[in-house]
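Design request, tokens follow.
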């Protein structure tokens, strides 16, 4: 019997090690957005919808949170896409730091870890 190697992220093309779907990650970001200004919320909602539409035809593993077969992007790539969008929109530094505090997944030597250093988090 052939064993699956897991779902490959549509962004980085690596096997997804932490299968949390973008729907669940999006819900976490929605919780984080409570109290943020309308502009930030709108930017994030647009980007989340864009990510969700990108994976509609992807085969995937089950999400470890909701159990749906909707994992097509790794949590790291999801967070990086959202962070880069926030950065392009000149969101204030404190919101960027807060986002990285909650969503950088503690990977070393990555774009988000370098951004955390640049913003003086370490």
């Amino acid at each position: 019997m052939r064993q699956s190697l897991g779902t490959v992220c549509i962004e980085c093309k690596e096997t997804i090690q932490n299968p949390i779907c973008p729907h669940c990650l999006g819900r976490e970001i929605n919780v984080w957005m409570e109290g943020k200004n309308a502009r930030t919320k709108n930017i994030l909602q647009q980007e989340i919808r864009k990510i969700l539409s990108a994976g509609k035809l992807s085969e995937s593993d089950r999400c470890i949170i909701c159990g749906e077969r909707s994992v097509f992007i790794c949590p790291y790539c999801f967070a990086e896409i959202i962070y880069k969008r926030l950065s392009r929109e000149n969101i204030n530094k404190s919101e960027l730091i807060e986002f990285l505090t909650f969503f950088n997944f503690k990977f070393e030597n990555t774009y988000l870890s370098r951004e955390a250093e640049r913003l003086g988090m370490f």
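Comment from the thread starter after seeing the answer: thanks! The chain has a mean pLDDT of 84.
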